[in-house]
Amino acid sequence: MTTTLLRDHDLAAAFDRGADSYDRLVALNPGYHAHLRRSARRLQLPGGGAGLRVLDLGCGTGASTAALLATAPAAEIVAVDASAGMLARAAAKDWPDRVTFRQAPAEALAEAGVTGPFDAVFAAYLLRNVTDPDHVLAQVRDLLAPGGRLAVHEYTLSGSRAHRAVWAAVCRAVVQPAGTLAGDRDLYRHLRRSVVDFDTVGTLRGRLRCAGFTGVRALPMPGWPTGVLHTLLARTPRPGETV
Ligand SMILES: C[S@@+](CC[C@H](N)C(=O)[O-])C[C@H]1O[C@@H](n2cnc3c(N)ncnc32)[C@H](O)[C@@H]1O
């Protein structure tokens, strides 16, 4: 069966509808929050984030925001999402004053008043959802200070048949039945398809380099998502540094 990927307004509307069940569904994924915290730690933000501005791009219901806060409790965190429903769930949770939420599409951050410089950007489960990842990465690069850090936490397959089969099995056995029961069938079909259609980890590394990032590395996740979920780390060049 072919599944059409959801994009832009249709995707934001699907996340609006899925917002109420999102936290319950991700709780079925063993390690969801621990994996986010691992990627956030991999940013290696110094001093608990004191004096740093960090952007959580595609913050959803705030799971990635909480992961950032755990690793950088002193940072100022700006959490942005296109879906009003997801943001409402996030904003209803308890946060320190240093955490603020903004509704904006990743494609038009400056227009929505999200301005840099940021010391770090965390993009968790966002990039395969956007229509033009290169455009979004170019914006992220421009929002980061020189030497600013990027962590992309994403389902991005290794390219091996075995890891592709793991993803298909997880979707068939857990993701799609649970999503259908929750009434969000289209969103979780989109999830399965968007991962299959998106970059392999090697392609995504190249995409980051082409977008002007340096020090690009991909780190695997332990446990069941090995070869399925990766943290890609990169930074913007410092003055005088060539990419
Ligand atoms: C799978 S959720 C991940 C949420 C959160 N980062 C987490 O780790 O739980 C993806 C989020 O990206 C948001 N999103 C998708 N496309 C977007 C876009 N173009 N601009 C801003 N947010 C977007 C969705 O609304 C959704 O909340």
Please write out the topology.
Elements: H1 8-26, H2 32-42, E1 53-57, H3 63-71, E2 76-81, H4 84-91, E3 99-103, E4 118-124, H5 133-143, E5 144-155, H6 161-181, H7 185-197, H8 201-210, E6 214-220, E7 229-235
Helix pairs in contact: 1-4, 2-3, 6-7
* Gross morphology: globular
Oligomer: single chain
Q: Proportion of β residues?
A: 15-25%
Give me the CATH fold name of one domain.
Answer: Rossmann fold
Core attributes:
single chain, 243 residues, alpha/beta, Rossmann fold, 7-stranded mixed beta sheet, 8 helices, binds S-adenosylmethionine
Structural notes for this entry:
The protein has 243 residues and is an alpha/beta fold. It has a domain at 29-157 and 198-235: Vaccinia Virus protein VP39 (Rossmann fold), CATH 3.40.50. Helix content is 42%, strand content 20%. The chain has eight helices and seven strands, in the order ααβαβαββαβαααββ. It has helices at residues 8-26, 32-42, 63-71, 84-91, 133-143, 161-181, 185-197, 201-210, and strands at 53-57, 76-81, 99-103, 118-124, 144-155, 214-220, 229-235. A seven-stranded mixed beta sheet has the order 3-2-1-4-5-7-6, sandwiched between helices. Helix 1 runs parallel beside helix 4 (84-91). The radius of gyration is 17 Å and the shape is globular. The model has no long low-confidence stretch (mean pLDDT 95). The protein binds S-adenosylmethionine.
Give me a quick take on this structure.
The chain is 42% helix and 20% strand.
